[in-house]
Design a protein that fits this description.
3% strand, two-stranded antiparallel ribbon, mainly alpha
Length: 153
C-alpha cells in the first residue's frame, strides 16, 4: 500500500502543531513563559506549513474524493464538513491567540488560549481521521476540484 506524499506530509504538520500546543500548555502551567511563547509560535508555524501545502495541493493538483463504500459516504462527507468548519474556526482562534499573546494582551489571551487549544486538538484528531479514511483505510477516489471532491458533483 502506498500513500500520497503531500497529504502525508501536511497531516504530519497538523499532528506536530497539536503536540507543540500540548507542550505549550505544560510550559505555561510551569510558568515558563518564554518557552511557552516559542513553542506556541512553532505550533502556529507548523499549522501554517500544513495550510501552505494543503492550499498549494488544492490549487495545483486538486482534492481527492472519498473512495470508500457508497453507504458510508454521507457520514464521511458530514464528518469532513465538520472538520473543515472546526479547522477554520480553530485557525481564526489560533491567529487571535498568538497575536494577543505576543502583544501581551493577556486578559484576552488567557480566556481564548485554552479554548483555541481544545479546538486545535479536535482539528488534529479529525484531520488524522480524514487522512486515514481517504488514504489508508480506503483508497482515495479521483483527484478533482474541491467542490466536486466534497459534494460529489
Amino acid at each position: 500500500m502506498s500513500v500520497p506524499i503531500l497529504p502525508t506530509i501536511s497531516t504530519t504538520f497538523i499532528v506536530i502543531s497539536a503536540v507543540l500546543v500540548a507542550i505549550g500548555w505544560g510550559l505555561i502551567y510551569k510558568k515558563k513563559i518564554e518557552a511557552h511563547k516559542k513553542v506556541m509560535v512553532a505550533a502556529g508555524v507548523s499549522a501554517l506549513i500544513f495550510f501552505i501545502i494543503y492550499a498549494s495541493r488544492t490549487i495545483f493538483i486538486g482534492n481527492t474524493s472519498f473512495g470508500g463504500p457508497d453507504d458510508i459516504k454521507q457520514y464521511y462527507t458530514f464528518f469532513l464538513i465538520f472538520h473543515i468548519i472546526l479547522a477554520t474556526v480553530g485557525a481564526v482562534f489560533g491567529v487571535v491567540s498568538i497575536m494577543t499573546g505576543l502583544k501581551t494582551k493577556l486578559s484576552i489571551h488567557r480566556k481564548i488560549g485554552p479554548i483555541t487549544s481544545i479546538i486545535w486538538f479536535f482539528v488534529a484528531i479529525t484531520g488524522v481521521a480524514v487522512y486515514l479514511l481517504l488514504y489508508v483505510i480506503y483508497h482515495g477516489g479521483e483527484t478533482t476540484s474541491l467542490i466536486k471532491a466534497i459534494l460529489g458533483f
